[in-house]
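Dear Dr. K.,

Following up on our conversation at the group meeting, I've run the structure prediction for PTS IIA-like nitrogen regulatory protein PtsN from Microvirga brassicacearum. I'm pasting the input sequence below exactly as I used it, so you can double-check it against your construct before we proceed with anything downstream. Let me know if the numbering doesn't match what you have in your notebook.
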Amino acid sequence: MPLLDFLDPKAVLPALRVSSKKQALQEIAAHSSKLLGLDEGMVFEALLQRERLGSTGIGEGVAIPHGKLPGLTRIFGLVARLEKPIDFEALDGQHVDILFLLLAPEGAGADHLKALARVARVLREPGLVDRIRATREANALYAVMTEIPRAA
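The predicted structure tokens came back this morning:
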């Protein structure tokens, strides 16, 4: 099974233009809701609620906003490279330019946590973040995110 099998090629935004954390969350909520057939406001509110608990900015310019949603039937991922880094209140204080949105069904339980761990593991691959930052096309960014050498 591919490490990020929940990332769809249509859920790749290689040059997202936003100027704030709120705008970034609105944009990824809008894009994901269209792909999933869900209410955009519901997706955005789920992301805001999670951010109120503490920033999902994990450091080194990366954030993994996530949430659980009623009506969602599968785990869903979306990756976005921002044109300009934004303040995301990250743990290390660095601005964020890479977002990986993860949405899970309301009753996902441990599957949600496992998917979060998989995303974090992929984003820690040596050189991967630099490759994401150098990528300007959706298909190339999708390839970077899904063709990572798998450790045994």
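Two things stood out to me. The longest helix spans residues 21-36. Residues 7-146 form a domain with the Mannitol-specific EII; Chain A fold (CATH 3.40.930.10).

Best regards,
J.T.
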